[in-house]
Design goal:
The structure is a single chain. By secondary structure, the protein is α/β, with parallel strands linked by helices. The protein contains 14 helices and 13 strands. It has two domains: 170 residues, D-Maltodextrin-Binding Protein, domain 2 (3-Layer(aba) Sandwich), CATH 3.40.190.150; 152 residues, Periplasmic binding protein-like II (D-Maltodextrin-Binding Protein, domain 2), CATH 3.40.190. Strand 6, helix 6 and strand 7 form a beta-alpha-beta unit. Helix 2 crosses helix 11, helix 10 packs across helix 13 and helix 10 crosses helix 14. The two termini are 34 Å apart.
C-alpha cells in the first residue's frame, strides 16, 4: 500500500490491516548473521544516505536482529555494483541491492553493459521522490508562470548525460512546447544548480529533499520562482500535487494550461513511464530472484513495522524528506513499468533526442 508521506505511514497501514512482524513465517531467522546491502554508488551519496538511515531499524525489526552493513561498489553510474549483485545472488535474505533512479534508467534505456534485471528480483520497498522545476525571479516573478518560459527565445538547462535520467528533462521541455529550451551537456545536478545560481542557466530542478532544503528558502525570500512538480501518480491513474507544496501545479496541469487540452494518448503513456522511473522508484531495495517466500515476507514485514516505529515517525521526514513509500507487490508493479519501456515510450524519447541534436538513442 502506498502512502504519500512517511510520517503518515502508521495510520495508513493500520487502517489497511498491515501484517505485523510477529506474523512472519518462523523459518525466517537471521540470528547471528550479517546482512549486506549492496549500494552501487560511492559513499556519501543519496542512496547510501537513504538506506543508511534504515540500518538501525532493520537491525531492530528483521527476525533475529542481525548486523546490517553497507557495501559501496561505485562505477558506471551504478552498473558495476548492480551487475556484481546480479552475478553473486545469495537467496537467503542476507544479500540485498539498493538502487537509485540511474540504476533503473540504465536498464530502461537498454545499456549494453547492464547484466542485472530489476524486474526479475523480489522488491522489498520503494522510497519515492518528486521532481520540481524552478526559475529565477529575474526570469519571471510570477509563480507557476510557464508561459513566460515558453515565450522566451532561449532557456538553458543542465544535462549531465542524455543516457541518464536527465534525458527526461529533454522530453519535459519538448512536450511543454518550449522551443527555446537548450540543454547544456556535461553539467551534473550539483554543477547545474551552481550554474543556475550564477545566472548561466534559466531553469533548474531538484528532488524532494533538496527542494525542501535549498529551493523553498529561495522561494520565500523572492530569489526563486516556483514552476511545477512532476506529479504524484495514484493507484487509479490520477495525478496529485505534492502534499508539502499543495499550490504547485503538476506537469499534466501545466501541459493542459499551455496546450489547452489534457495530457493524453502517447504523451500520457510516456509521462506515466517516466514518472515510475523518476518519482515512484527513486530509491528501491531488492532481494535476489529465488529468495524464498518466508524471507521475502520477513523483509517486507520489517518495513511495515519500521514505518510504525515512533522514532521513525519522529525523524523520517527530516532524514528522508517528505517521501512516498511503497512496500511489497505494488513495488514490483512499479519496477516492472519503470525498467521495461514500451515501444511508444522509446519512440517518444528517441524523437526528442533527435530534435535536440543529441546523438544518444535507445536501441
Amino acid at each position: 500500500m502506498r502512502v504519500l508521506k512517511l510520517a503518515a505511514a502508521c495510520a495508513a497501514f493500520l487502517a489497511a490491516g498491515a501484517t505485523a512482524m510477529d506474523t512472519a513465517h518462523a523459518e525466517a531467522d537471521f540470528s547471528g548473521q550479517t546482512i549486506t546491502i549492496v549500494v552501487p554508488f560511492g559513499e556519501g551519496g543519496g542512496t547510501t544516505r537513504v538506506f543508511g538511515y534504515f540500518v538501525p531499524f532493520l537491525e531492530k525489526y528483521l527476525p533475529g536482529n542481525p548486523l546490517v552493513q553497507m557495501l559501496n561498489i561505485p562505477g558506471g553510474g551504478s552498473i558495476k555494483g548492480a551487475n556484481q549483485f546480479h552475478n553473486n545472488q545469495l537467496p537467503d535474505g542476507t544479500y540485498v541491492l539498493a538502487t537509485s533512479t540511474s540504476t533503473v534508467v540504465n536498464q530502461a534505456v537498454r545499456n549494453p553493459l547492464v547484466e542485472y534485471d530489476l524486474s526479475a528480483y523480489q522488491p522489498i520497498a520503494l522510497i519515492g521522490s518528486e521532481t520540481h522545476w524552478f526559475t529565477s525571479s529575474k526570469v519571471t516573478a510570477e509563480p507557476y508562470d510557464f508561459r513566460s518560459i515558453v515565450e522566451r527565445p532561449l532557456v538553458l538547462y543542465a544535462l549531465n548525460s542524455p543516457s541518464s535520467a536527465d534525458l527526461f528533462h529533454v522530453w519535459v521541455f519538448d512536450k511543454l512546447g518550449i522551443e527555446g529550451a537548450k540543454p547544456i551537456p556535461g553539467l551534473s545536478s550539483a554543477a547545474g544548480y551552481q550554474a543556475f545560481l550564477r545566472g548561466e542557466i534559466q531553469v533548474s530542478s531538484h528532488g524532494s529533499a533538496n527542494y525542501q532544503r535549498q529551493v523553498v528558502p529561495g522561494l520565500e525570500n523572492g530569489e526563486f520562482t516556483d514552476l511545477m512538480s512532476f506529479g504524484l501518480v495514484q493507484l487509479d491513474g490520477t495525478v496529485n500535487r505534492t502534499p508539502y507544496s499543495p499550490d504547485t501545479p503538476t506537469f499534466p496541469e501545466q501541459y493542459e494550461r499551455i496546450h489547452g487540452q489534457p495530457l493524453a494518448g502517447d504523451d500520457l503513456t510516456t509521462y506515466l513511464a517516466i514518472n515510475a522511473i523518476w518519482n515512484r522508484a527513486s530509491k528501491a531495495l531488492f532481494l535476489p530472484t529465488d529468495t524464498p517466500a518466508d524471507v521475502v515476507d520477513a523483509w517486507r514485514d520489517a518495513f511495515r513495522n519500521i514505518i510504525q516505529d515512533p522514532e521513525f515517525l519522529a525523524t523520517s521526514e527530516d532524514a528522508l524528506g517528505p517521501s512516498e513509500l511503497i512496500v511489497g507487490e505494488e513495488a514490483g508493479e512499479v519496477v516492472a513499468s519503470a525498467a521495461v519501456l514500451s515501444d511508444v515510450v522509446v519512440g517518444q524519447l528517441n524523437d526528442v533526442l533527435a530534435s535536440n541534436n543529441l546523438t544518444f538513442r535507445i536501441e
